[in-house]
Write the structure tokens for this entry.
Amino acid sequence: MFKSLQTNRIFNKFLILIFSILYVFNRSKRQYIRGKYKNIYKNHQLNRIANIIQENYKDYYCIFTRNGIGDIFFVASLIKEFKNLYGGKFVFFTEKKSLVPFLKAFPSIDAISYDKNYRILQEYQTLQKHITIGQLNKLFFPYRGTKETYTFSDNYNNLLYLPLDAKRELPIVGMKNLDAAQKEFFRLRLYPEKTILIIPDATMFDYRIIHAEFWINIASELEKRGYQVVFNTKLKEFKNFTTTFLPIMDFVAFAQKIKYVISFRSGINDLFCGMGITNISVLYPPNLEVIWADAIDFHKLHNYHTFTSDNELENMFNIHSLNKTFKTDEVQEIIYDFDDVAIQNEIISNIEKGIRGNSV
């Protein structure tokens, strides 16, 4: 049974549930048992992961990345530049199997290790003592307080000890990706030159600030004007619209071919813009508040940025601005102000006139 507690997460949770029922009126006992059994599993997994590193990757820089597409893009695209300056090999650890093909698209990543139990690394800041070289083994909130940081992506340059203008190596869009995108157009009966992609949700900023009605209205208006609208979301509010769910690099190939993208601010926007997809309107929430659990550390990270304005909202916007991050003016960036009609008209005007940029 003890081995099952160490290795079987479901069995571990089941026993915790049983004891929680047995001690339903004894909170302190429940908390003690829950903590003890969880630690049995966690400590075993940490030791197992440390052994994997020691046996296979002890001479690598080990990256335990967040699952965010933008986070991965910002660090993976800088590895080639890092190697040019410092040498070394890189291994990425991921708990999501769907991220493996995305990571493989970056030529300078030397190895990828997938295991669903790597999720436990999200709770720990370091396994440095198990690695023979390197300090690049954790990418939760990377910052260097003594260096200049203007946008969120600058944190990754600083983490890798690279200049802020370091050249990025882009992931490769291969023939398989292009073929998959073409098949998706055929499956959905879409004409790329008429297709508008809408991405209404995100995991970092609170997308719920913009009601589904906003996206539905703009989609309906675009369809009236002869465009074909496709959503990338699993939200039930949009079930009556055409939807697409492609692997990440297939999705990039799809987005490269279409007329326009309308999106709530998310990590996929970083990847799109990094890949040169700037025919896009991006909506930011009015307060720029994050919604994931590590928001406190996220705001702590912001304290290390070099601000250029006395206006707090403007500074927050500058940190996350796609135009500032990628040094362009082609993305239409909109801070949502609840004036749905005006925003919808501005976006549609940009699409029909072929305008790039023009933030409001």
